[in-house]
Inverse folding.
């Protein structure tokens, strides 16, 4: 952190002495006011539910300029990474700070590829779930259970353990997601195949059976790989902050990532891709494009509790750059599959156009986010809707680990412990039962 020459001065209208607070500059983005000593100096906390103006950490991994609609991983624009790199290169970048060079790339690929198998006992653990369990319920359990299988990499304060658990998590997530899918549909699990790329291997584990192999389709593999890249990290979002907070207690990496999976599940976060596709299906069933006006009316009605899923973002007040790339991929995939007239895609584009011209969305700066188009791509690839968020979790795992490891390596890190403004009863005595 670079200290700024400027100081913030906080003054009080009741005549209490004012306090000077240090300011720090980031490499880009807004400065931060350091309020760590505020309580000691004034006996007061700050109040910021939802962290609207609070930086919870310093980080050098991902930068978002919400007004411009810009997303950088370690300084590289997401558009360049999506077009020029594969997911494992992006994993290397997020984890270690740089894209792999020509020697590092095959070594890293080999390392991840040779950790894709999971302990054979995992399938017996999986059998305890109902077949119709939601994949995110299963994934929360499976990821948490990894700490019961890999005891030699559970010490978060040991850098070697952190390195091994990072590789294990990145390598095993596709296997676990595919296993949870196969379990749900009653098909045998497919073991990973090391000759395939990370993403082609995932698709084979999903779609092959022991009776029939899966021939990877380049366009679809590339689309899935792009989905992974676009979801790989997004700085201090709800699930990443959950992983950091969970890890700050010193718990093991698998447990911290399981907490991230649980947080991601919610429809305001990663669950939005599933919710968005369900919304498009509902509108389609109501009558399709002609019913958009009626649907938008419901969205604008404050009492309806209906949201336009896949729209809006806490940070982006402009078009989410990931949504642009996802829309491009949508065209490619639907074209390659001969589904150019896909009714849901047409509906999504019509909905986007109408929403972007509507005063309600314009004045609130609500634009499509990554989830608006990703569901259509995944559905075209053959991914069932309830699995969408599990795929998001697979991809975000590298971001969670990179952020977790960055936090543990930060000398300024402390256990996360927010404070509160207490509004409940002041001290009182317990009355006897007869008088309550
Ligand atoms: N549809 C209708 N109105 C919306 C929407 C939406 N999708 N999003 C925000 N608004 C309205 C909101 O009602 C509020 O209006 P008003 O000022 O009149 O009260 C205003 O816009 C500001 O919204 P907010 O709820 O204060 O914004 P937030 O930063 O707290 O929430 C959000 C961000 C993503 C949770 C929200 O936009 C949302 O629920 N979107 C739909 C779910 C979604 O697509 N989530 C995926 C986010 S991107 C991927 C990820 O993070 O996992």
């Amino acid at each position: 952190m670079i200290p700024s020459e400027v100081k913030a001065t906080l003054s009080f209208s009741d005549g209490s002495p004012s306090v000077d607070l240090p300011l720090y500059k980031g490499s880009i983005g807004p400065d931060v006011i350091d309020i760590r000593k505020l309580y000691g100096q004034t006996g007061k906390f700050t109040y910021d539910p939802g962290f609207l103006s609070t930086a919870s950490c310093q980080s050098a991994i991902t930068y978002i300029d919400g007004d411009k609609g810009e997303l950088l991983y370690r300084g590289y624009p997401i558009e360049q990474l999506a077009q020029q790199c594969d997911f494992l290169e992006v994993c290397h970048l997020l984890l270690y700070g740089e894209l792999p060079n020509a020697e590092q790339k095959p070594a890293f690929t080999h390392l991840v590829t040779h950790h894709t198998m999971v302990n054979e006992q995992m399938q017996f653990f999986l059998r305890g779930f109902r077949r119709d369990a939601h994949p995110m319920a299963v994934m929360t359990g499976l990821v948490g259970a990894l700490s019961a299988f890999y005891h030699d990499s559970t010490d978060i304060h040991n850098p070697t353990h952190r390195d091994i658990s990072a590789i294990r998590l990145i390598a095993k997530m596709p296997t676990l997601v595919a296993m949870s899918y196969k379990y749900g549909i009653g098909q045998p699990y497919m073991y990973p195949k090391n000759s395939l790329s990370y993403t082609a291997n995932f698709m084979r584990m999903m779609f092959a059976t022991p009776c029939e192999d899966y021939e990877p389709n380049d366009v679809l593999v590339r689309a899935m790989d792009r989905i992974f890249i676009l979801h790989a990290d997004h700085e201090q979002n709800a699930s990443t902050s959950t992983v950091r907070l969970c890890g700050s207690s010193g718990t093991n990496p698998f447990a911290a990532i399981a907490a991230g999976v649980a947080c991601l599940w919610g429809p305001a976060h990663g669950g939005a891709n599933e919710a968005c596709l369900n919304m498009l299906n509902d509108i389609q069933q109501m009558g399709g494009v002609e019913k958009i006006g009626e649907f938008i009316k419901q969205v604008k009605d404050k009492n309806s509790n209906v949201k336009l899923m896949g729209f809006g973002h806490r940070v982006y007040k402009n078009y989410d750059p990931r949504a642009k790339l996802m829309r491009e991929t949508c065209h490619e995939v639907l074209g390659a599959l001969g589904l150019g007239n896909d009714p849901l895609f047409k509906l999504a584009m019509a909905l986007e156009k109408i929403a972007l011209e509507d005063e309600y969305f314009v004045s609130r700066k609500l634009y499509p986010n990554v989830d608006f188009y990703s569901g259509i791509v995944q559905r075209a690839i053959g991914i069932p809707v309830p699995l969408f968020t599990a795929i998001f979790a697979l991809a975000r795992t590298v971001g969670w680990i990179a952020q977790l490891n960055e936090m543990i390596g930060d000398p300024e890190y402390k256990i996360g412990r927010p404070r509160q403004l207490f509004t409940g009863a002041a001290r009182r005595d317990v009355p006897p039962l007869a008088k309550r």
User: Anything to note?
Assistant: The chain has 18 helices and six strands. The chain has a mean pLDDT of 95. The pocket of carboxymethyl coenzyme *A is lined by residues 237, 268-270, 272, 299, 307-314, 364, 366, 369-371 (CB under 6 Å). The beta strands are 2-10, 19-25, 32-33, 62-65, 70-73, 76-77.
